[in-house]
Amino acid sequence: MLYEALWRLPHAANVYSGEYFHFKYQLFTWVVELPASWMVAFEMLILAVAALGVLLGVLFRTSSVIFTLIYVHLFLIDEAYYNNYIYFALLISILLAFTGADKTFSVRSYRSRDNESVAIPRAVPFWNYFLLRAQIIIFYFYGGIAKLNVDWLSAQPLKHWFQNSVSIRYPMTWFAHQDWFAWAVAYGGIFINLGAPLLLLWRRTRTFAIVALIAYHLMNSRLFMDGLFPYLAIVGIIVFLEPSGGRYLWGRFQKFVIGASNVRSLECSSLSHLRSKVKKRRLVILWIVIYLSLQVAFPLRAYIFSDSSTWTEVGDKFSWTMRLRNKEAFVKFRFSHPEAEIWLNENSALSPRLTAAQVTAMSKHPWMMLQYARELDRILSENSMPDTKITVISVASLSARPYQVMIDPTADLTEIDYPFWGVADWILPLAANPLYESRPLTREGRMRAIMRALQTYADAHADSIFL
């Protein structure tokens, strides 16, 4: 996270710049960004200092809270840039703020090593470990459940990525072009996600699970260009190790560096003692139950409200649906008054500005299209343009299926709502039977496929007003 604050986030200025329109999460439309100069020079600096405080164990609790609050703010600025690893890092930072992680391997513990008056216990309540372990297991488990769909079980998304990606790193380039490798990764991913976290909890299988997870994440780092996510997941394995192992290695290191006479032993409360303390802290237990219940329940939206969350996008975020699809989309907004579109084209500086990444994300997500249409309607109204019905031509292809219309092209986006629970009736369902086509398509081939989808929809809805 220190690396994120110092190098990656400051270079992602477009994400936070007020020059661009920002797509908001449904419950957080009130979140606004700071001016870009403040964002880079002030907020990022505080984020880096807080991350360093967490890393070194200096004012650990304060640093954790500050880091979490700033990171939450950055995360909520624009939904178009949602990423599972950012969400995972955010949850871990929230949980760390409630733990006593600075009781060892920290500046605080180092300063108290020879001073009994400020000595701190080198043990933490068991729930600190339990909560972090539970969060990681939930992350893996739902990642495996999400893969139990017809596309993944036929290895279709992986076949597409491996055949067409130019970012696969050595030495995986040769494997990626083998048909069997896509099947191996598809079913291996299911086994790793569903099996490895549980195997981590059992001492006899822990070594096998650690080796499998490390190999899995390192392979993903070469195949998918996932940035820091594979390494973040590998570091998470540490909380499944026995604390005694870390104490032993740290003690040997201290003896090697500073000599055996100056090493202070690391006492550890018994597990039964720690459990008895947990029982006395009813508020802590209540908080753990509420937090884990939300973490278990929230991803279920992807399966309760939609047969295919990767198509409707309902519940797809925050559900650990990682690397499940390849979605190609085309979007064009239409106006009932032609002069409105002409005015927008002539006054492009007044139109909401989008980055290429935002356009790509919006073309796949109905909620973002609705937000953008409302912003266009607001701009037109403020500039005395006539009341304009705004509709959208939205056509998409999910995991190499034939293109089909995703949004009702007669729905006025300035008048309809996007429900928090359930799927909006103006989002058209995905065709039931998957039919996969070869990819990639040329630009001309893609436009022909899009036009066929529009013609198919028009033929099936001859009674509707659709051009």
What does this structure look like?
This protein has 467 residues and is mostly helical. The chain folds into 3 domains: 1-120, no CATH class; 121-241 and 281-323, no CATH class; 326-460, no CATH class. The chain is built from 22 helices and 3 strands. Strands 1-2-3 form a 3-stranded antiparallel beta sheet, sandwiched between helices. A hairpin with a 5-residue loop joins strand 2 and strand 3. Helix 3 (36-56) runs antiparallel to helix 4 (60-76), helix 12 packs antiparallel against helix 13 (229-236) and helix 20 crosses helix 21. The model is unreliable at 260-274 (pLDDT under 50).
Give a quick precis of the structure.
The chain contains 22 helices and three strands. The chain is mainly alpha-helical and about 475 residues long. The longest helix has 23 residues, at about 180-200.
The rough form would be described as globular
Helical coverage, percent range: 55-70%
Beta-strand residue percentage: under 5%
Class by helix and strand content?
mainly alpha
> What are the segments in which pLDDT stays under 50 over at least 5 consecutive residues?
260-274
Rg over C-alpha atoms, rounded to the nearest angstrom = 26 Å
By DSSP (H or I, 4+ residues per run), the number of helices equals: 22
SSE topology string? HHHHHHHHHHHHHHHHHHEHHHEEH
**Sheet with most strands: strand arrangement:** 1-2-3
**How many individual β-strands?**
3
What's the end-to-end separation, in Å?
50 Å
Q: Tell me the count of domains.
A: 3
Tell me the quaternary state: single chain
Query: Mean of residue pLDDT?
Result: 83
Instruction: Please summarize the sheet with the most strands.
Output: 3 strands, antiparallel
